Amino acid sequence: MIDGIINRLVLVLLACSLSCNGSSQKGGDNESPAPCSHADKEAEHKPSCPDNGKCAQRFCDQVHIPGGVFEIGSDTEPKGVPPRYIGGLDHFGDEKPEHKVQLDAFCIDKYEVTAERYAACVNAGACDPSGCMWPDDPVPADGNSPVVNHYPPECKDSADRCPHHPVNCKTFEQASTYCAWTGRRLCTEAEWERAANGPPGPKKRKHPWGDAPVSGVLANVPPCGPGYLERVDRYSEGRSVEGVVNLIGNVLEWVDDYYAPYDSCDGGIACNPTGPTNGRYRIGRGGGFFFESNYTITERTVFDPNFDWGCVGIRCCGSVEHPSSK
Predict the structure, then answer these.
(1) pTM of the predicted model, to two decimals?
(2) What is the CATH number that goes with domain 56-134+147-326?
(3) Angle at CA 190, nearest 5°, toward 189 and 194?
(4) In the chain, where are the structural domains located?
(5) pLDDT in tens, 3-61
């Protein structure tokens, strides 16, 4: 009898062993990891982009850009023209010399800020709706902004008809205020160029999409574009390696830095550079729909901060949030 009990116990243990071994092999790599696995812990600690819930409209997506060392500027592009006041819009700033910077990881808006997104800030009482009223502009009889806002013909009298086109005619302060309202901020010049270039590689890209010539499929720029602003998702073929759309063309984008020649830097690797602490001019990046330029990722356009013509728009960045900081 004892022998029978022992035999039954052996069979039960053997069956249990086979069952456990079988379940651990079933499905192979397709099986979901066990709860509290190392992979789950990594996911729990994955950095996130800033989101205070106020950017809830379409095209509020952000792209995470890893940190690291990369080169900003160019030694091959022609030397820029020193800043000089021309109705608010300057010739190009100096792109030389090419130099290394180190950036922390950050997030950047996948799309330019839309008219709909900006309108939400206006409706909340946080943003100023005025624009397209540079001192030299003719003032309409009704005192409102000029009808010519660089939108398609069907939207020239009201941006409400083109909610997914980029907001434009905003000063540096208006752009900065909008980004802050969403819990984000304007990009630094170095962040913008890193996002446009993509991950560092053996050769710097000329454009966000690579070195292929500018075309009407890749960017809304003259003479390829229609002569007015297009939807923020219109030229996705020209997106950066990491998926950021319209970094070249459509509207120029304010960055947070004051303008200064790069050769004023002290050399070495600058960590998270933000430009000079004061100055007269601000910088726009990316070229615009009627703005003749080289449309390269290193190009710098210098503006009076109160410049609010229709060629200038907004794109926000944000510092990466880590779970431990929440």
Answers:
(1) 0.80
(2) 3.90.1580.10
(3) 120
(4) 56-134+147-326
(5) 443 344 334 333 333 333 333 333 333 333 333 233 333 344 567 898 899 999 999 99
